[in-house]
Amino acid sequence: MGSLGGFDVEGKTAVVTGAGSGINYSFTALLLARGCNVLLADLALRPEAQKLLDKYARATTTKPRAVFQETDVTDWAQLERMFDVANEEFGKVDIVCPGAGIYDPHWTNFWHPPGSEKSRDATDGGRYASLDINLTHPIRTTQLAIAQFLHPKNGSAKASPSNPKRVLIVTSIAGQNANLSTPLYVAAKHGMNGLIRSLGALEDKLGIRVNGVAPGIIKTPLWTEHPEKLAFLDAAKDEWATPEEVAEGMLRCLEDSALGGGTILEVGAKQTRLVQALNDPGPSGAGHSVSRLADSYEEVYGWLAEEGWGQRKRNVKSRL
């Protein structure tokens, strides 16, 4: 589905969750460089993100402005506050990217169930933090974005085909693949693909484009600070894509008339392609594969062989 009109990020205002590091930091930097105000929403900022915030703390005639809002994306009240602050600071919201995500750490993982030693998910909590962050947060943020676009604050114009707005969801090649080691992450990204496809028709009727970017294996802290995930890769065979490549793809999702509502742009190392809804061949090539993935399955089988796996041992209250 194609866009009905042009869209330029210059002069717009964006809300980006997870902007304190990785892909979303690079996307934020690119938006600011293109003249777009940004509210950075995250639990904290890494040094490079803090430096970026300092650079754009004050708007001038030649550059936009950035503000930081400390945000726990699992807390719906904080998600609402994020939009309130964006309206207070900038007077409007044009672009929303619920980009924050985690990659199945042991503390919220299918293979370390609630009640196990490594899990922070409470046995009586009724939820997994992994799904709260990777699935529920983008769903709720998208709802809030649509409500904002249709009922804007401060008297600004509502979304329409002549006044387009954007929701950009960060999905993954995991939305097409299977991985025994990270089933909750895979389930969440399959869900994101379905959400993007399902909301695609909003653009033609309301001017609200919901589309997505599907990164491959990207060199960010999501990987590099998790040795258990780095074990999937063979440095001699596998190739990283960069967060800057993904950020460029994300900008295309906002501005390119060919990447309309419901479309998903896959980004690998020096390559992009559209992910088809049906009969898609799946991701392949540089930046899309890890050679030792199957080897990691043996670790899963080892966990399952442990005496009492999955049985309730103690009540572990969530520390999130």
UniProtKB/TrEMBL annotation:
<dbReference type="InterPro" id="IPR036291">
    <property type="entry name" value="NAD(P)-bd_dom_sf"/>
</dbReference>
<keyword id="KW-0560">Oxidoreductase</keyword>
<dbReference type="GO" id="GO:0005737">
    <property type="term" value="C:cytoplasm"/>
</dbReference>
<keyword id="KW-0521">NADP</keyword>
<comment type="similarity">
    <text>Belongs to the short-chain dehydrogenases/reductases (SDR) family.</text>
</comment>
<protein>
    <submittedName>
        <fullName>NAD(P)-binding protein</fullName>
    </submittedName>
</protein>
<dbReference type="GO" id="GO:0016491">
    <property type="term" value="F:oxidoreductase activity"/>
</dbReference>
<dbReference type="InterPro" id="IPR002347">
    <property type="entry name" value="SDR_fam"/>
</dbReference>
<dbReference type="Pfam" id="PF00106">
    <property type="entry name" value="adh_short"/>
</dbReference>
<dbReference type="InterPro" id="IPR020904">
    <property type="entry name" value="Sc_DH/Rdtase_CS"/>
</dbReference>
